């Protein structure tokens, strides 16, 4: 598998993100290795809060939430998915599959970091990957937070705006990643923050991951990932693991999933689920401190 690695100087002036990256090598599923990156804060002996980002962002998305959770005494772990952030970037779209991304994250957080008693925080693809892990390794997870995400099986049509996003990110000759993230927010974004979202991608040769991910979302019942997602959904529906449903009020892509999670998930029953106001798809960017506060309260219960 051919990969690219973003030069370190691209990350030299990140606003409000002082966390030193950590690295490890995992199998690329083809006999080679990939370097995955993550940042971490809080007490090393505390139970971990695993925060997984989505498309086309990276762990920088959680910069407003990390200090709130770490300050409350939690160990916060924020990986960069393969193809994003400081992690290695396979150069072909075909290198990216749903199953591989699940396995790559599993290898990092279980084989390398040996995380136990995990609280999952998953948004966008962070939920698509994290919920699979929570269903398939329930002994590793103590709580789940779903935030503007889902677990598509291809049995329900995706909204038109999602198809527009998929067509744009797969068809444009070059990608302006910062613009895509800004378009998924309700609140203004500074030029420095937008540049930080662009930082992992010096040119389009680094963008196979962002281009590939929309095509990996199951959109038909016979999609290769559909059976595993159906099985995961069924397990999660019966799981007693407490689940907080913390969606924003302004996400046209995943907003319809909030009441479904609240209604169908056993672990979501009897919990006061917040709505994050004046926030778009990337609610961590729009209202990260507020979302983190809700999670801190959830972890106190």
UniProtKB/TrEMBL annotation:
Residues 48-166 form the AB hydrolase-1 domain. It comes from the Bacteria. Signal peptide: none annotated. SUPFAM superfamilies: alpha/beta-Hydrolases. One of its GO terms (molecular function) is epoxide hydrolase activity. Pfam families: Abhydrolase_1 (PF00561). Keywords: Hydrolase. NCBIfam families: PRK00870.1. This is Haloalkane dehalogenase. It comes from Mycobacterium celatum.
């Amino acid at each position: 598998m051919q990969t690219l690695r973003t030069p370190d100087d691209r990350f030299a002036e990140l606003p409000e993100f002082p966390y030193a990256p950590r690295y490890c090598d995992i199998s690329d599923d083809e006999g080679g290795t990939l370097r995955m990156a993550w940042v971490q804060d809080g007490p090393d002996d505390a139970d971990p809060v695993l925060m997984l980002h989505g498309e086309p962002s990276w762990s920088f998305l959680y910069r407003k939430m990390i200090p709130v959770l770490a300050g409350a005494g939690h160990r916060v772990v924020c990986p960069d998915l393969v193809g994003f952030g400081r992690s290695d970037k396979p150069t072909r779209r075909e290198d990216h599959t749903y199953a591989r991304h699940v396995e790559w994250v599993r290898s990092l957080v279980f084989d390398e970091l040996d995380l136990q008693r995990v609280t999952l925080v998953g948004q966008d693809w962070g939920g698509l990957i994290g919920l699979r892990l929570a269903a398939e390794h329930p002994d590793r997870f103590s709580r789940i937070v779903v935030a503007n995400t889902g677990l598509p099986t291809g049995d329900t049509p995706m909204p038109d705006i999602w198809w527009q996003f998929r067509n744009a990110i797969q068809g444009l000759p070059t990608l302006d990643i910062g613009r895509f993230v800004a378009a998924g927010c309700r609140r203004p974004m500074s030029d420095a923050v937008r540049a930080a979202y662009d930082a992992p991608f010096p040119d389009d040769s680094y963008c196979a991951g962002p281009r590939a991910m929309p095509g990996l979302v199951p959109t038909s019942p016979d999609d290769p990932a559909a059976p595993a997602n159906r099985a995961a959904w069924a397990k999660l529906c019966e799981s007693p693991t407490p689940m907080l449903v913390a969606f924003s009020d302004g996400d046209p892509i995943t907003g319809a999933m909030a009441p479904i999670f609240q209604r169908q998930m056993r672990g979501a029953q009897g919990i006061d689920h917040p709505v994050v106001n004046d926030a778009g798809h990337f609610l961590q960017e729009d209202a990260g401190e507020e979302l983190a506060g809700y999670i801190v309260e959830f972890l106190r219960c």
